[in-house]
């Protein structure tokens, strides 16, 4: 399984970005694809994912601002990020099954 993340960039506080992560290879369940992030000097943390029944769940710090979605046919997950804050600055990684990692895409929120 290979994961290709894209969509990062520089955005002003309050702005929006949409990240994508496309999987190639055999995916057993897209519900085990998740978004993580790692800010400078901090540990990697889970941002958003799905339960086994497909319900989205989020870190408290992004609830109400970020939305995870999925396209099963395309084997792709997305992360719509709104009302971005400086503390959202991080490298965002997609993960599959707690085993496979994408290369990361940098999100910088700065004025």
Structural summary, described in words:
By secondary structure, the chain is mainly beta. The protein contains no helices and eleven strands. The strands form two sheets. Strands 2, 4, 5, 6, 9, 10 and 11 form a seven-stranded mixed sheet that branches. It has a four-stranded antiparallel sheet with strand order 1-3-8-7, with no helix packed on it.
Q: What is the strand tally? A: 11
| Strand content bin | over 45%
**Secondary structure tally, helices:** 0
- Gap from first CA to last CA: 37 Å
For the sheet with most strands, the description reads: 7 strands, mixed
Q: Low-confidence parts lasting 5 or more residues at pLDDT below 50? A: none
Radius of gyration: 13 Å
- Encode the helix/strand succession as letters: EEEEEEEEEEE
Mean pLDDT: 95
- Categorize the overall geometry: globular
Alpha-beta content class: mainly beta
Helical content, roughly?
under 10%
């Amino acid at each position: 399984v290979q994961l290709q993340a894209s969509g990062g960039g520089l955005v002003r506080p309050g702005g929006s970005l949409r990240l994508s992560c496309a999987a190639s290879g055999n995916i057993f369940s897209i519900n085990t694809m998740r978004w993580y992030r790692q800010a400078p000097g901090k540990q990697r943390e889970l941002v958003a994912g799905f339960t086994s029944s497909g319900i989205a769940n989020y870190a408290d710090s992004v609830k109400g601002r970020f939305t995870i979605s999925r396209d099963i046919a395309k084997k792709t997950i997305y992360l719509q990020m709104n009302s971005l804050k400086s503390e959202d600055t991080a490298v965002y990684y997609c993960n599959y099954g707690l085993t496979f990692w994408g290369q990361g895409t940098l999100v910088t929120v700065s004025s």
